[in-house]
What does this fold into?
Amino acid sequence: MTRFLLISLLTLTISGSPAMAQEKAPLVLALDADLSAVAVEGGTAIRRGMEIAIAEVNNNGGVLGHQLSLVTTDHRGNPARGVYNVEQLAKRQNLLAIFGGVHTPVALAELAAVHKNNMLFLSPWAAGTSLVDNHYTPNNVFRVSIRDEQAGEVLIKTARERGVKEIALVLERTGWGRSNFTSLSKAAEHQGLKIVSTQWINWRQTDFTNEMSAIIQSGAGAIILVSNAPEAAVVSKTLLKLEAAEMPLIAHWGLAGGDFVAEMGLADLFKLDLSVIQTFSFLHQNNSRSAYLLKAYRERYDDIAPQAIPAVVGLAHSYDLVHILIAAVKKAGSVEADAVRQALENLPVLQGAVKQYAPAFTENMHDALMAEDYFMAKFNEDGHLIPVSDIR
It folds into this structure.
């Protein structure tokens, strides 16, 4: 009996020790994105960037005794579905943050649910200015991506540097399109360019002949295009059909979130004078984080050329956002939303794949990337986006 008691006490002591304590439940990072419709390439890239960063964090011991896990929901580009997904995610235990997808209209629709439930929302793609400048106090949205207000200046500057004085706008008829109408109008006025035609395109619109004819008749010297891949292909094919391929197309990056190249075909793609705004390329960024990200991507998914990775900006942005978030959790010493939000606004310098964030955010600025972080790219003969500075 005495021996039995001693063994029992020894067993209790060992099982109750810190080394044998029950592991804490994983912290959940949720991705709500278009994973099956027009922006599936962007959604997939975001998911992969998160997966690589999560694996890296977990392999290094997790955070505050927790491992990380990833949960995905597919809003398919539908704002109502996005709101439903956010409301369902709010019920999950140990949810640390929600990462958004490509579509600004969906993210804007989700803002009320995000703030009602006091959840952190991190945007690795959606660029609408009002997504971050949303008038919520406190503001739970943080972004590593393009900010339309800043993108407008870069797109207009690109047209001006081409010697263009009169431009046309082609904008999708959504909150993202309206955001860009505001930013492009201000940038054009600031840089002395005149907008001579503004045309709107609906999602899934298949005929753009009348609108393109109006643009040609306006005398515009270039088109600034703000749309996703399917509509961008419609606009581009109409430009070719009306034999106006010499007119420069200066595009926001929505077309890079879907399979624009496949919809166009390489032969027609190379008839266009098309450039696309970007924030990241493995040919442009050269640092320890980008090198690790490329190595991990090729080992985990596909050993392809760096420039061939689809929707690469989503990959890099989400990778950096996970690490920024985890740095904030460590700084806060807590997983509570209020504490982590405050820490996100007060981080030290952090090296990311996209750049060195010094810092990523402040109390008054929840956008980590500005105009100086953007560059223009063109498609090469294989249909891959190459920074203009790297084209010989």
